[in-house]
Amino acid sequence: MKYLLAIDAGTGSIRAVVFDTKGNQISVAQTEWTHFKEEGVPNSMSFDFRQNWTLVCSVIKKAIKEAKISGSDILALSATSMREGIVLYDKEGNELWGVANVDARADKEVRFLKENFPKIEDEFYRLSGQTFALGALPRLLWLKNNRVDIYTKVAKISMISDWVLAKLCGVIATDPSNGGTTGIFSLNRRDWQSDMAARVGLKDTIFPPCYETGTVLGRVLNQVCQLTGLSPNTKVVTGGGDVQLGCAGLGVVNAGDAAVLGGSFWQQVVNIPSLVQPPKDMSIRVNPHVVKNLSQAEGITFFSGLVMRWFRDAFCQTQKEQAAKLGIDTYAVLEQQAKDVPVGSYGIIPIFSDSMNYKNWYHGAPSFLNLTLDASKSNPISIFRSLEENAAIVSSLNLERIEKFTGIDINTIVFAGGASKGTLWPQILADVTGCVVNIPKVTEATALGAAMAAGVGVGIYNDLVSAAKELVVWQRSYAPDLNNKKLYDDIKIKFQKAYKKQLELVDEGVTSSMWKAPGL
What's the average model confidence in pLDDT over 72-88? Predict the structure, then answer.
């Protein structure tokens, strides 16, 4: 029996997952890692590549041991990571500097670019589908302004999963799905657009080769084999961004396919042809997919999963105790009780994430509106349901924006991530959107996508589309209640009006934004 290895470099942890060639998970090893704030640098989130390489090696070695196999049994490996995080190298390939995904140190640089190149963000967005909010250009400019000794040595740039593969095989390269999130990229050509850097006074010679996902880069270096337990015969294959490879692991690989990924953040993604232009209002992000000739229109809902976890821990002690006695998850208890709360949750309106506005991206102050003094209606269970409804409403608004500029009619949604584990939230999502919601039978979609990429590299699968067709299995399906949809259509209108007023309070300095993009 032969195996494939997926390395998943997430925001909060690094994982190594062993799969067999039929897509069955054999073992997983995981350890948390942290991204430290650089002293004296507000809003920074540095990537500790020295310590983190030690952690990468440890989880690979542990996953092989847990699988009870040897490194020579692993045909190929690939990697995926949080997007936007970057690593910079000198001409010998040694790491110089790195940041994780939501590093927001370049606030002044974003403002500088917008003020001194007033139309360039719009122009670059039309080419790349990205704004400056999470892009690499402001961060590189920050480095040039504040760490000139490092900047002068920079010879190459890559994303974090690219860094993992480079450490394993010695080849620095990227793929479209991950490299595209730098914003220094062409959606149409699926390659770097290096003149963007030159136009704002930055180096334009630091961009490594860009290969499609599933391309063999090389084999594991001998010295790395000793650290990881891998074999020098194991092939190292290009991977991709976590959302895009996660979509491959969910079977979202054809034009028009749509998914809602319900994790700490929620992403709403729709596959579109690479030639489709991003929307003129710059409201939605567009990224290259891991599938050739496809991009993904992406809406992002901030903190949906994190808000739910906060609410559970802060206000649901009774339900936590009930769940402990029953030996089940607290969310299962909350969902069971919330089924008896009527659609609309007695008018409670949560204010957390707004629908996406990529050009002018900020949020209102966290709050709940329309609470009453009637404890039978304004209580933790009603508020819990209102949060589930609100996440679905914001997802629906983002999907509607995508439908508007692409002309795609979305009628089926793949729903995955922690939010899809229950039964109430998927039904609410179906009712709010009016779409059939399908739940895949997979627990590690992102890692499975990376394993698929590795399998493509060694010819086990012809491509990611055929791999998804072979490996993805469906577990449950939810049809929408169209009577409930009519009610939710009215609730969506009220939410949008309420959120607009909440943003005005932020603008007036009365309340504090939950999050603002750098430069606002």
Answer: 96
CA–CA dist 501, 58 (Å, integer) = 50
Residue in 434, 438, 437 with CA at minimum distance from that of residue 481 = 434
Domain match, 265 and 400 both: yes
At residue 444 the predicted structure's pLDDT band, cuts being 50, 70 and 90, is confident
Q: Cα separation of 367 and 333, whole Å?
A: 24
CA distances from 244 to 288, 400, 484 (A): 8, 20, 32
- State which residues form the domain around 67: 3-244
Return the percent helix, strand and coil in the chain, to nearest 5. Answer: 40, 20, 40
Of 233, 230, 257, nearest to 246 by C-alpha is: 257
Determine the pLDDT at residue 101. 87
458 with 237: CB under 8 angstroms? Answer: yes
Claim to verify: residue 382 and residue 520 sit in the same structural domain: yes
Residue 519 has pLDDT above 80, yes or no: no
Q: Is residue 288, in this structure, part of any structural domain at all?
A: yes
Residue 313, C-beta contacts closer than 8 angstroms, at least 6 positions apart: none
Assign 3-class secondary structure to 71-131.
Answer: ECCEEEEEEEECCCCEEEECCCCCEEEEECCCCCCCHHHHHHHHHHCCCHHHHHHHHHCCC
Instruction: Tell me the average pLDDT across 227-233.
Output: 98
* Position 88 in a domain: yes
- The confidence score (pLDDT) of residue 127 equals 97
Count CB-CB contacts under 10 A for residue 314: 9
Q: Residue 345 region, left (φ>0) first, then alpha (ψ -120 to 50), else beta?
A: left
- Encode pLDDT of 486-495 as tens digits: 999 999 999 9
Q: What global pTM score does this model have?
A: 0.92
Encoded tokens for 212: 């499609």
Across residues 421-428, what is the average pLDDT? 96
Q: Which amino acid is at 4?
A: L
Give mean pLDDT, residues 170-196: 97
Nearest to 178 by CA among 157, 199, 151: 157
Please give the mean pLDDT across all residues of the chain: 96
Domain end: 244, 276, 299, which one?
Answer: 244
